[in-house]
Design a protein that fits this description.
- The complex is a heterodimer of chains A (777) and B (285).
- By secondary structure, chain A is of the alpha+beta class.
- Chain A has 18 helices and 30 strands.
- Chain A has three domains: 180 residues, Aldehyde oxidase/xanthine dehydrogenase, a/b hammerhead (Aldehyde Oxidoreductase, domain 3, Alpha-Beta Complex), CATH 3.90.1170.50; 320 residues, Aldehyde oxidase/xanthine dehydrogenase, molybdopterin binding domain (Aldehyde Oxidoreductase, domain 4), CATH 3.30.365.10; 141 residues, Aldehyde Oxidoreductase, domain 4 (2-Layer Sandwich), CATH 3.30.365.
- In chain A, the strands form eight sheets. Chain A has a seven-stranded mixed β-sheet, sandwiched between helices. In chain A, strands 9-17-16-15-10 form a five-stranded mixed β-sheet, with helices on both faces. Chain A has a four-stranded mixed β-sheet with strand order 18-26-27-30, with helices on both faces.
- Chain B has twelve helices and 14 strands.
- Chain B has a five-stranded antiparallel β-sheet with strand order 4-5-10-6-7.
- In chain B, a hairpin with a 2-residue loop joins strand 4 and strand 5.
- The radius of gyration of chain B is 19 Å and the shape is globular.
- Classes of the chains: A alpha+beta (777), B alpha+beta (285).
- Chains A and B meet through helix 3 and helix 18 of A and helix 12 of B.
Chain lengths: 777, 285
């Protein structure tokens, strides 16, 4: 049994010319590491102010109902309660859950929803009222004193049901939240040409972000009348939407982002900010709001469940000639980022393969489930789970080696993907997959009823936002008179090393040690706006912005130094805090001295740079032909598993991930991202499912919702390849999201390799293994 | 957040027993609190008075006494792992302690608490059942020893009266020929609630016949249970593969599992049979 060979050998890499750098690429201790290790980092929930109130949110307990009566008078009367707010108190308070008009979608009515439910609730956990009180205990008591009567309405909890005529409408006009289509070539002709057509349906569940740090923040109104919100967020630019929802001008909201204790997309949407701003505005006192774990799980977004059907036409020789793919995503009770997540899944649906004839139809559907939105990979891992199992299913049907089928069909640089976008950077698909498989070593033998299997999954995943969103980032770099360096950037640091990367890039450009760079970040009022820490975009966008700003300062310094040394600027270099003549390094001046000379002469020692991604026009949603993304990261993961065919238990024996990340800015941070992303993806494969029953969540604690522990998986070995071909600084690509994408598909392929039957649904539990085995008995 | 409650801190066992007697309705003893505090936070349990017995010297320690191993009720699960007497005399219990929750919980959770909480999935229960353990219930009026098998009544229900405290657990030191094993099937490899668990102890004579067999199972009935029919089948016979398979089947027959978010009843029944067969087969060698 087994599709895979017991050993693979990788071919040598294509030659690349990557100059050795002094700071970039080194596994230096991250600038944020020490404070985190010793517990000095002040996270959002750690912050307190004198006279601060404590907030709680009153939420719906039913998935679909009309609010017949809401009475907060007893709660308001409770001593120690400063404020209780309902929809009545904020008549214009609207929360934008989508960015209508930018996706090429019709503007949906449901995109603008009340901050607090007024007369209708659509999911369990929907906010209805806010309480601020002198203590948390009083706030909790006040919640218990809020009286509510519901008239329960029929709900719909399955996206396929929700599309049927007569299904309850979650919000007007219908349950279709978004549709995207790809039409490339002639899919009918392609299918007619095929020797074999392979059809399979794959399903993935709701998944919870389960960050260590739940949503948290403190807000206060300052002496200028500005509402300051110190919050754990991936997006300080939300201050604009917050201003709209609260009813104040945009320059009266300031968002100060803290170090984030895990975001993964769950803090991409607004969480506590509007509640805090409203309560601070109404009470004119500082207010703190920290979600409990259960509240965080119940009320915040989830990864989209998808039902994905692949119909693939192949030739006997392994060449794919046509693909028809249908995707249905459960958007939950409000749109949030569903149209975008669906778009990503649709664009990635074919996988990184050259397919001349393609039809993809994607639809996101409203239900009375929790709303679904961004989650690391943003539709990519769901798509990969389907397309990479489909590749193995094709190999099995053709009796070919799965790597051979992939090799024949892999995208190469210069090819176009399903949307007709040309792959501009290196597409090291075979390089990464064969290296991951090779590093597994010899396959272990079966042990009685315990069968060993291995699997691989290749992927492509965009980095940078959709190009018709016209993305920009700003950064400021300046040199102080003692030769130290300051960076200002609005970048939120999710723990992935975003701030450190900017420091390391600046240190490289200005020739200073890493510890000579101080980064001020994540303040919507005081640091130049860098855009969201989402879409694997910060290294690409803000890395380039900081590179531009630092390079501009470098030019001023070198131009002035060229006069000083009477040498051409291109014969000068900067390192270790000195400017020196390349052919005679003895001839040098300290950066501090040169900064003082420049300051005395009024030369600009700082620069505010703006980096623009490629700007394109929106594509026709009926065929999606054209550029959608700036570029893609390519890579693969290979795993070996042991499957107990009597109990269904799966043990992950080995895991190797190989990614071409273009260029590592900090090698240790890159490896950390790969190990962490892999663990999250392996949890998706084997453990994680946010269980919903008729709109009621069943897994709102971490004893029921199982994420991997350190005992579950061996560490994923990270193989970092550097093609230098990315569009980020120094040829970098992005790795934040891609690191998760292939894991679940690799595991599914390994389980199928071990037991000879494929499991089309995540998570792959012991019970599903036994059910699958029953099918072949 | 925790609901309000009164916390009493007895200095001696007799003070604790007095407090249990005096307290109004809704008194609960607390030791490690790893179940109780979570239940209180989740609103599933709202005792108005907690009597903290964690610090009581009388309830601590593991010792050998009159042919028994005696475990003080507030012995932590971590202490089971550290005590050589457990590893030597009752490896089946030691094995269960090793896969109990996670290291942090093991440092706080007590053996008495795990039993008194009476979860069907309590991981110390199946090994203590196969060791023929008894629990000591003590009130102001005195003490009684109750077989563990009789102590469990149903889901979170035991023989313990509100004024009683579970003070100790004891089991006869198994003869040197006794061998056993424990297997917990959870959905992850640590910090998981059992989907099903099986504990086995058998004594096999030199002639190869099984003198005594004890099999217990967790998370497959409203309470941890013994597989009496299977035990009876094995005793006095040679443990052939066929006999073991038959006994394993009887184990599954003895269960009355439920469907929940972790697994279906059918899966639990199936897997208990596999685990019992494997554990018994291992002991055959």
């Amino acid at each position: 049994m087994g599709l895979y060979k017991s050993k693979y050998t990788a071919k040598p890499l294509p030659p690349v010319d990557l100059p050795e750098l002094r700071v970039v690429g080194k596994p230096l201790r991250r600038v944020d590491a020490l404070a985190k290790a010793v517990g000095k980092t002040v996270y959002a929930g750690d912050f307190s102010m004198p006279g601060m109130l404590y907030a709680k949110v009153f939420r719906s307990t039913v998935p679909s109902a009309r609010i017949k009566r809401l009475d907060v008078s007893k709660a308001r009367a409770l001593p120690g309660v400063a404020c209780v707010l309902t929809a009545e108190d904020l008549p214009d308070g609207k929360l934008v859950t989508d960015i209508p008009g930018q996706t090429g979608q019709k503007v949906r009515k449901g995109s603008l929803t009340s901050v607090l439910a007024r007369d209708r609730v659509r999911f369990v956990g929907e906010p209805i009222a806010l309480v601020a009180a002198e203590t948390l205990e009083i706030a909790e008591k006040a919640l218990e004193m809020i009286e509510i009567e519901y008239e329960e309405l029929p709900g719909v909890f399955d996206p396929l049901e929700a599309m049927k005529p007569g299904a309850p409408i979650v919000y007007e006009p219908d349950n279709i939240v978004a549709r995207w289509k790809i039409r490339k070539g002639d899919v009918h002709a392609g299918m007619a040409e095929a020797d074999l057509i392979i059809e399979n349906t794959y399903r993935v569940p709701f998944v919870e972000h389960a960050y260590l740090e739940p949503e948290a923040g403190v807000a206060w109104v300052d002496e200028r009348g500005v509402i300051n919100i110190r919050v754990s967020t991936q997006v300080v630019e939300h201050f604009r939407s917050i201003a709209k929802a609260v009813g104040v001008p945009q320059n009266k909201i300031r968002t100060i982002g803290t170090m984030v204790g895990g975001g993964f997309g769950g803090k991409e949407d607004i969480t506590v900010e509007i509640f805090l701003a409203l309560l601070a505005k109404h009470t004119q006192r500082p207010v703190k709001l920290v979600y409990t774990r259960e509240e965080s799980m119940m009320s915040q977004s989830k990864r989209h469940p998808f039902i994905i059907t692949h119909r693939t036409g192949v030739k006997r020789n392994g060449r794919i000639v046509a693909a028809e793919i249908d995707l249905v995503a459960d958007s939950g009770a409000y749109p949030y980022l569903s149209p975008y997540v669906l778009l990503y899944a649709v664009v990635m649906a074919t996988g990184p393969y050259r397919i001349p004839n393609v039809r993809v139809d994607g639809v996101a559907v409203a239900t009375n489930n929790p709303f679904t939105s961004a989650f690391r990979g943003f539709g990519g891992p769901q798509a990969a789970f389907a397309y990479e199992q489909q590749m193995d299913a094709i190999a099995e049907a053709l009796g070919m080696d799965p790597m051979e089928v992939r090799r024949i069909n892999y995208l190469r640089t210069g090819d176009t993907n399903a949307t007709g976008q040309v792959i501009e950077s290196a597409a090291w698909l075979e390089e990464t997959a064969t290296r991951a498989l090779e590093a597994l070593g010899e396959k272990e033998p079966d042990r009685g009823s315990v069968k060993i299997g291995r699997g691989v999954a290749s992927y492509f995943q965009s980095y940078g936002r959709i190009t018709w969103l016209h993305d920009t980032s700003r950064a400021w770099v300046g040199v102080e008179l003692d030769g130290t360096v300051v960076v200002r950037s609005g970048v939120p640091d999710l723990g992935a090393g975003q701030v450190n990367s900017l420091a390391q890039i600046t240190a490289e450009v200005l020739g200073v040690p890493l510890d000579q760079v101080t980064v001020y970040s994540t303040d919507s009022a005081l640091t130049p706006l860098a855009g969201t820490s989402t879409a694997t975009r910060q290294l690409y966008m803000s890395g380039n912005a900081v590179y531009q700003a630092a390079s501009a300062v470098r030019k001023v310094l070198l131009d002035r130094a060229s006069k000083h040394f009477e040498e051409d600027p291109k014969d000068l270099d900067m390192a270790e805090g000195r400017i020196f003549v390349k052919h005679n390094p003895e001839q040098s001046i300290s950066l501090a001295e040169m900064a003082q000379i420049c300051a005395a002469e009024g030369l600009p020692l700082s620069n505010l740079a703006l980096f623009r991604a490629p700007f394109t026009d929106p594509l026709d949603p009926e065929n999606l032909q054209g550029r959608v993304f700036p570029d893609f990261t390519f890579g693969a993961q290979a795993v070996e598993v042991a499957v107990d065919t009597e109990t269904g238990e799966i043990t992950l024996l080995k895991s190797v991930a190989c990614h071409d990340i273009g260029r590592a800015i900090n090698r240790a941070a890159v490896e950390g991202q790969i190990e962490g992303g892999s663990s999250q993806g392996l949890g998706y494969a084997l453990l994680e499912e946010y269980v919903m029953e008729e709109g009621i969540p069943k897994t709102v604690t971490l004893s029921e919702y199982l994420i991997p522990t350190s005992m579950d998986f061996p560490p994923t070995k990270a193989i970092v390849l550097e093609s230098g071909s990315g569009k980020g600084p120094f040829g970098a690509k992005g790795i934040g999201e891609p690191s998760l994408t292939p894991a679940a598909a690799a595991v599914a392929n390994a389980v199928a390799d071990a037991i000879g039957v494929r499991i089309h649904e995540l998570p792959i539990t012991p019970e599903k293994v036994l059910e699958a085995l029953k099918r072949i008995k | 957040m925790l609901p309000e409650f009164e916390l009493l801190m007895p200095r001696t066992l007799s003070e604790a027993l007095e407090m249990l007697t005096q307290a109004r309705e809704g008194v609960a003893p607390i030791a490690g609190g790893t179940n109780l505090v979570v239940d209180m936070r989740g609103g599933r349990h709202r005792p108005s008075v907690l009597v903290n017995v964690a610090g009581l010297e009388e309830l601590r320690g593991i010792r050998r006494e009159n042919g028994h191993v005696v475990i003080g009720a507030t012995t932590t699960v971590a202490e089971l792992l550290e005590e050589p007497l457990i590893a030597e005399a009752a490896p089946v219990l030691w094995s269960a302690a090793r896969v109990f929750a996670n290291p942090l919980v093991r440092n706080r959770a007590t053996v008495g608490g795990n039993l008194a909480d009476a979860s069907p999935a309590a991981d110390t229960a199946p090994p203590l059942l196969v060791l023929d353990a008894e629990v000591q219930l003590t009130s102001k009026e005195g003490s009684r020893w109750v077989p563990l098998d009789e102590f469990f009544l149903g889901v979170r229900q035991t023989l313990r009266q509100p004024d009683e405290l579970l003070t100790a657990i004891r089991f006869p030191v198994p003869p040197s020929g006794a061998v056993g094993g424990f297997y917990k099937l959870g959905l992850r490899k640590a910090d998981a609630i059992s989907v099903a668990s099986v504990a086995v102890v058998v004594e096999v004579g030199e002639d190869g016949t099984c003198r005594k067999a004890r099999i217990a199972m967790g998370a497959v009935a409203p309470r941890p249970i013994r597989a009496y029919e299977a035990e009876k089948l094995l005793e006095g016979r040679v443990l052939t593969p066929e006999l073991v398979a038959e006994a394993a089947h009887l184990c599954a027959e003895a269960t009355s599992p439920i469907d929940d978010i972790r697994a279906s009843a059918a899966y639990r029944k199936h897997v208990v049979e596999v685990l019992a067969r494997r554990l018994l087969s291992e002991e055959r060698r």
